[in-house]
Amino acid sequence: MIVLYNFGIGLKEYEERGLLNEFPLFTHCPNCQCHAPGNLHRHGFYWRNGVTEKHVVRRIPICRLRCQRCRMTISVLPDFLIPYFQYTLRAVLLRVVEILEKKIKSEGRQLLRFHLNRYLRQVKWVHSYFVEQGEVRGLSNDKRKEATKYMKRILDFGESSFLRRSQGHLSRYFMAN
């Protein structure tokens, strides 16, 4: 299980702190909701890449916890990362915005095309999240226009805030397949 957490710092500082980051202490298991003290144990770390918009690769530790009651392993992922993506949330969103606004061409750039296509498939998911929040109604037939509108809304909302708050919406993650 992945839990997104706001460490209040960026990728560079998170990397510099390494294992000395202030990892959260939970009062309840995120899965079974049992009382955490005595049940949630540190289960080590794994190392993961975080790639910035300038393609700088940073190796960062991800804290793992294990609930003794439900046996679920929980990964505490910084909210500037998208689950299962190496590029940071900001890097992906900025590149998609550039493509949508036609500042760069995505033809021939496999990773850009992948991120754009994944986002375009998510537009209805993003729309349903904002409808659930009571912020919008109706969806036009122009997919690119809607994609641009919602991308601006996500950036205005704050990309990390959006990622944390939308976690679990329709039982999926943002940009999940």
Walk me through what this model shows:
The protein has a 4-stranded mixed sheet with strand order 1-4-3-2, covered by helices on one side. The chain has 5 helices and 4 strands; from the N terminus they run E-H-E-E-E-H-H-H-H. A hairpin with a 5-residue loop joins strand 3 and strand 4. The protein is of the alpha+beta class and 177 residues long. The mean pLDDT is 90. The protein is globular and about 55 Å long. The protein folds into 2 domains: 2-78, no CATH class; 89-171, no CATH class.
Give the secondary structure arrangement, pairings included.
Blueprint: E1 2-5, H1 11-17, E2 40-51, E3 57-67, E4 73-78, H2 89-100, H3 110-132, H4 143-157, H5 159-166
Helix pairs in contact: 2-3, 2-4, 3-4
List descriptors.
177 residues; alpha+beta; 2 domains
